[in-house]
Amino acid sequence: MAGQLEAVREVEIDADGTFKYILVRVQRAGGAEHRDVVRGNKAAEFHNHIFEKLNPEMEKLGFECKCLGGGKIDHNSKDKKLRVFGLSTGYGKADHSVTVEILKRVYKDYEITWSDDKK
After folding, report:
1. pTM
2. Where are the domains of the chain?
3. Which is more confident, 2 or 11?
4. Is the domain 5-115 a CATH 3.50.20.20 member?
5. Is 80 annotated as a binding residue?
6. Straight-line distance from the first to the last Cα atom of the chain, in angstroms, rounded to the nearest whole number
7. Which residue from 107, 31, 118 is spatially nearest to 72, judged by alpha carbons?
8. Is 47 noted as a catalytic residue in this protein?
9. Of 69, 83, 88, 109, which sits most exposed with the smallest number of CB within 10 A?
């Protein structure tokens, strides 16, 4: 089971720009093992739009999803910088320090920062 969980990509975000993101816990229904993943894109007008896209995809694979919170990401691929900030009105503020640790595993050569700033 853990192997299938490992197949879920940790990060799926837009390549550039400022956009909403959510931190989501994915786990096998009734299972203890989980994986926290980051999802974000400019197409989402609201944080729940991101969750509403991810959740059915994960359910098809037999996983349950729980949104742990949200915020925004400013992605500058030219300068290799990511900034995590803000909050989600519906889901609350994600633990940005957790989000940054996940992003660092994927964007190894980036400067990645976070703050509780709203803008």
Report:
1. 0.94
2. 5-115
3. 11
4. yes
5. no
6. 40
7. 118
8. yes
9. 109
Confidence of residue 67 (pLDDT cuts 50, 70, 90): very high
Catalytic residue among 47, 49, 75, 96: 47
**pLDDT tens digit sequence for 15-64:** 999 999 999 999 988 888 999 999 999 999 999 999 999 999 999 999 99
CA neighbours within 13 Å on the CB side: how many for 64? 10
Neighbour-count burial for 53-69, b at 16+ CB within 10 Å, e otherwise: ebbeebeeeebebebbb
pLDDT at 1: 46
Tokens of 99: 């989000």
Is the Cβ–Cβ distance between 99 and 70 less than 8 Å? no
